[in-house]
Every structure is written in structure tokens, then in C-alpha cells.
Amino acid sequence: MENTQLTSAQAGRAAASQAKRAKMIRKHVIAYAFLVPIFVSMALFKYYPFFTAIVKSFYQWNGANINKFVGFDNFVKLFQDPTFYVSLKNVTLLTASFVVIQLTLPLFAAVCVFHARGRIQNMYRVLFLVPMVVPYIIIYLLWRWIYVSNGVLNALLQSVGLESWTHAWLGESATALGAIIFVNFPWIGGIYFLIYLAGLITISQELFEVGKLDGMNVWQRFWHIELPLIRNQIRLIIVLAII
């Protein structure tokens, strides 16, 4: 009898919980409806191409009239191709350099702006955020104009008598990787700067006052107060820089 009562009570609680969830779903059905176009777009333009690429990697396929299943032959050829390892090395270097750059320079800029006062702080905030509204295509075209054989960089080197230093910066294997890494100099991206600055703003001023009373210098304040309290922002920056 007691088991029957317990089972009935559990069933009643489960039914009440399901009814509550159904009520919440109905209440927020409009919000879920607004999410449908986003999920459809992601499915069409992200997930479908991704899984299609995985499937097609097992086929000899030219996009038109050849579609022959070859199993792992494509992967065997890939790992036997020396170009693959060169590409892998270059991608690793690019990713590592980008992560290191975004972990340091935007943080340095954010700390400097955070400790500035008055109009100077507001001015630098605007200056660091203005590049966010510039389309990336314009930035890349600008750097292409700098790097071409008759571009700004080679013209500058020639004007100071360093003709031997001129290169086809993006066309030579010795300089292409470094030239790509140097794009976006001084590498203080607006979004990364903003994330660091937002994290610094959330730190209680009382901690800075205590540090000042303890005689902390700038480096000690950064290492013992600021850096530990923006660890979540640093993790986010690492993820964004890698992807």
C-alpha cells in the first residue's frame, strides 16, 4: 500500500513538473520562434557543409561527374604529402602567434587605459574601439597595398637606400608567414581590448586601495590583483583567438 502511495506521489510530481515545463515552453514560444531562423542558418551554412565535407573525404570526387568511394585513400595520400606538414606547421605558427599577441598587447593597452583618468581615458577608449567599425576587407586591402612589389613598404625601403631589403612580401616563402602575422599591427583588436577592459572595470576599487596601502608597485598590483581577477576573460580570449 505504501509503495503504491509513493508511486502515485512520484507520478503526480512528475506530471506537475511536465505541466510546468510545458507551460514555460508555451509562454516563451515567441522567443523560441525567433531562434528558428538562426538555427536554420547555422544548419545550412555551418553544419551541413561540415558533415558533407566529412562524407566526401571518403570519395574520389570532382564536384561534377566523379563520385567514387575510395575509403581512407585520401587520408593516406594526405599524410604522405610533404605539403600537408608544411601547411600544418604554418597554421600552428599563425595560431600560436595570434594567441600570444592577443593575450599580451590588448591586455597591456587595457591596463593603461583603465588606470588613465578623465578625458584621456575616454579618448583612448574611443581610439581603440574605432577599428571595430572598419570592415576587415578594407584592412586586408590596405595591407595588400602595403605589401605588393610596388607598394608602400618597398617604396619606403628604397627611399632610405635599402633596396636590397625589398621583397615580394606575400609571394616569397621566406617572408610570407611573417608578413601575414604582422597584419593588423599593433594587434590591439577592439573586441579583445574591450573584454579585458570590462574585466578590469569589475574589480573592486577597495582592492586597489588596500594594495596601495601595502605599498604595491605597478607590477605587483598587476600580478597579484588584476591578473588573477581577469582569468575568466583570459580564458575567453584564448578560445576566441584559437577559433
TrEMBL record:
The lineage of its organism: Bacteria, Bacillati, Bacillota, Bacilli, Bacillales. Keywords: Cell membrane, Membrane, Transmembrane, Transmembrane helix, Transport. Residues 88-243 form the ABC transmembrane type-1 domain. SUPFAM superfamilies: MetI-like. One of its GO terms (cellular component) is plasma membrane. It is found in: Cell membrane. Pfam families: BPD_transp_1 (PF00528). InterPro entries: MetI-like, MetI-like_sf, UgpAE/MalFG_permease. GO terms for biological process: transmembrane transport. It is a multi-pass membrane protein. This is Sugar ABC transporter permease. The chain crosses the membrane at residues 29-48, 91-114, 126-146, 174-198. Belongs to the binding-protein-dependent transport system permease family. It comes from Paenibacillus thalictri.
